[in-house]
């Protein structure tokens, strides 16, 4: 059996949970050697155990995407373990509930909440791109990067302005980086998930599940595996003419 990522080395951030975990597992299934990064090395280790048990090769890396030294170390450790970096999925992120009380409109948000949201969900992606691209250039160019945006990167959502601003920023970063590095053979895209069943959406589903599902033409939440399949493909050579794209995977939410 050959996989569409055979021979590639990939780094996934936020790989301990939800979409990141499912994508790390799917990338390994398709033949990639995996560096799985998350805030704690222990939590990333659980994903690594899944991959290694299925016959893949993976390492766990602890680090905070808001700290440049940590991000540089994630890339360096990947290269130390596997010799290079071909693919990256910059996916670590937080929901509004992680930075303050829910339900706040713009005039109610503290600057601390806004700054923390941007630090993780936007600056974190910038730092990852910076160090991953530097490594890809040092290898002589070539590579594929996918950033996790959201449908919130394309539309507004009431009481989530900080999250929406950060995710719109991810879309903009993606487009600009795609243009800058196309001549170097480095493709940069983002995936824009709709509502996906992960620990991040647990509370939202419990409090307003029917309201959310009413807006999804397919009438259900997506699974992390359904995002993973799109990301695997975008990272593979099968997506060789795709760069600068914001790829919606949302059960029809954005189209409606
Ligand atoms: N679940 C959804 O419906 C949905 C929809 C659209 C976009 N997203 C985005 O998908 C991504 C993954 O979310 P998920 O739903 O899998 O959530 P999740 O909470 O299951 O996973 C997020 C992971 O990111 C890690 N993380 C958070 N802050 C970090 C930091 N500073 N440094 C390193 N790691 C950090 C967490 O530890 C966690 O393992 C996020 O960027 C999120 O905004 C999710």
Verbal overview:
With 256 residues, the chain is an alpha/beta fold. The chain has a single domain (9-249), classed as Rossmann fold (3-Layer(aba) Sandwich). The chain contains seven helices and seven strands. It has a seven-stranded parallel beta sheet with strand order 3-2-1-4-5-6-7, with helices on both faces. Helix 2 (41-53) links the parallel strand 2 and strand 3. Helix 1 crosses helix 7 (224-235) and helix 4 runs parallel beside helix 5. The longest helix has 28 residues, at 111-138. The protein binds nicotinamide-adenine-dinucleotide (NAD).
Helix content: 40-55%
Detail the poorly predicted runs: none
Largest sheet: 7 strands, parallel
**Class by SSE composition:** alpha/beta
Topology overview:
Layout (H helix, E strand, L loop, with lengths): L8 E5 L4 H12 L3 E6 L2 H13 L4 E5 L5 H15 L4 E4 L20 H28 L4 E6 L12 H21 L4 E8 L8 H12 L10 H12 L10 E4 L7
Parallel strand pairs: 1-2, 1-4, 2-3, 4-5, 5-6, 6-7
Helix pairs in contact: 1-2, 1-7, 3-4, 4-5
Bound molecules: nicotinamide-adenine-dinucleotide.
What does this entry show, briefly?
The protein is of the alpha/beta class and 256 residues long.
